[in-house]
Amino acid sequence: MQTELSKQLGVEHAVFGFTPFPAVAAAISRAGGFGVLGAVRYTAPEDLKRDLDWIEAHVEGRPYGLDVVMPAKKVEAPSGQALSEADVEAMIPEGHRQFVRDTLAKYGVPELAEGEASGWRITGWMEQVARSQLDVAFDYPIRLLANALGSPPADIVARAHERGVLVAALAGSARHARKHQEAGIDIVVAQGYEAGGHTGEIASMVLTPEVVDAVDPLPVLAAGGIGSGRQIAAALALGAQGVWLGSLWLTTAEADLHSSALTRKLLAAGSGDTVRSRALTGKPARQLRTEWTDAWDAPDGPGTLPMPLQGLLVAEAVSRIQKYEVDPLLGTPVGQIVGRMNDVRSVRAVFDDLTRGFEQAVDRVQRIAGRSGQ
Amino acid sequence: MQTELSKQLGVEHAVFGFTPFPAVAAAISRAGGFGVLGAVRYTAPEDLKRDLDWIEAHVEGRPYGLDVVMPAKKVEAPSGQALSEADVEAMIPEGHRQFVRDTLAKYGVPELAEGEASGWRITGWMEQVARSQLDVAFDYPIRLLANALGSPPADIVARAHERGVLVAALAGSARHARKHQEAGIDIVVAQGYEAGGHTGEIASMVLTPEVVDAVDPLPVLAAGGIGSGRQIAAALALGAQGVWLGSLWLTTAEADLHSSALTRKLLAAGSGDTVRSRALTGKPARQLRTEWTDAWDAPDGPGTLPMPLQGLLVAEAVSRIQKYEVDPLLGTPVGQIVGRMNDVRSVRAVFDDLTRGFEQAVDRVQRIAGRSGQ
Hints:
Two copies of one chain form a homodimer.
Chain A: H1 4-9, E1 15-19, H2 22-30, E2 34-38, H3 45-58, E3 64-68, H4 85-89, H5 94-106, H6 127-137, E4 144-147, H7 154-162, E5 166-171, H8 174-182, E6 187-191, E7 197-198, H9 204-215, E8 220-223, H10 229-237, E9 242-245, H11 260-268, E10 274-277, E11 285-288, H12 291-297, H13 309-323, H14 347-368
Parallel strand pairs in A: 1-2, 1-9, 2-3, 3-4, 4-5, 5-6, 6-8, 8-9
Antiparallel strand pairs in A: 7-11, 10-11
Helix pairs in contact in A: 2-3, 3-6, 5-13, 8-9, 10-14
């Protein structure tokens, strides 16, 4: 499965796998794809360094990349000064904090232990955190830097290009994609409505060719709704130069969700069991629908706060829900493809299914077109 | 573009075109596809008869079909007796009627002339109307009967099968599709989130293969987001035996929207200019987003009524908005593919683009798979 982009990056298959887990990223690259480590959960640069060291030791020389989250708009004081996490915390209304406490109390969610840090942090949303991640990452031979929110700042694009690192950015509309192109990025990830995490309203079937045409000749990766070889063939038929898969790896054997209850929920969920909600970060992000997302989306709730306030507001609560596996509230960002994630298999097994399914889908389309298959 | 289903129906290309316009339906069939006439706008059986006569005279012996709308739930009195249109009208609250009057007044929408009938009727939603349509249609050599809401009643399926007419039903989920299969229908139209008209939450990229697997070996047509040969190739790669296109024909030369202002709005609209709203029928249906849909979807509005009440409530208003081309309120059901409908061309020109684009997409996928293209 070779496109110009996969050749440029030296990978066997134009399959890009986004994952927060180093073991998954390395396994995707070893399987012949391109593993991309999501950096948003790293607060401390040394943790990211440790995990990049691990990938280096396990990737067998294959290429891989890093995904950071730099919001297009900085959170700053009216003076234009960057704000600290504490400054931002202070902007959260007490009524919202009370709603979090009340909701957790209603479900009897225990407190974290004294001094126990919230394991689930989203401070990576803040530009200064993302920049410290990049200071670490540029010491490693990453081949791709992706930004999940808006175009990365010009100096970051320049630093990446100096090091021969391709820059990718996610887009949910053709207009958004053209902005990335103007910002000098190299690859657009067209993220459809059905995708997990932050996503827009336009579904992949419409979005992918629209973005392909809008930014031509930039290569486009299709994201959203892809978890089988048939869907990969579809995305490539739509004009993508590769696919960007995130959700599918969450139930692989190498993934480390720290919660068997969450894994069970993912395995059981159907394609209709997700919701596009602002509950997690303040921007619409597709995730498992739970009583937690229902509470935030209810008309009689306080409503969500803008990014990054919502993420800071709920960080500890989400950690508690995950630690104590409070089933009705337990969720995670995931796309509609969750309906296909029905067993735990190795990354290699999943990957082999993708490439085999792709070949079968190409056979099928060739037959329909009246051309001889293989 | 040949699948088992296209061979069974004797068409050159597995492209099914749904349209309310006889001239478009006939042109699709003449171009090598399968035209399906939407019957919902016909209140009087003799109007449907006139238009089927016209199709017969212009289809050059090619096969075509009919699409009706029979709600799964009948509107009936507690006694189980079928209700007349007048009975149903009486169920509409006065507050909702006032909201319609106020909204129309706010935009200065003129009244219809004395005695002028509302041109835009949705009484076809009611089962007794759909049955009278079928009494007409079964006298014609239709090859396909599609139902847009739920499975058709068992006696209708039996009548169709006696006449060698294949029965299709639209589905927005695998569960819904399996119900159709149990009801004995022959073809499932998997209608994705991005589609125009009544549609569910699951996007085509995820829905199509899910439905294909759920109802195997029944043939599935992919609907939603398809308006180019690339998208047809994608849908077939996903496992569909054909595609079902509705929106794309609205801006063809043969379409008769009775409103140049509406045509202009469709040509100008982008993929982000639609909304899935209950404003038109009471069930979520994708349509152009307008100040009319915004008014119904606003949190301080009265909310929409269930089908068929909402459709009866707004029928005259929609006629007035369309007749007087009141721009901010003027809309129509259409899918996200509206972003690709940017010029008025003949059905034949549109169709030829589809087949040419399909061949190019197959070339592309073959090259990526390392197989020689044509």
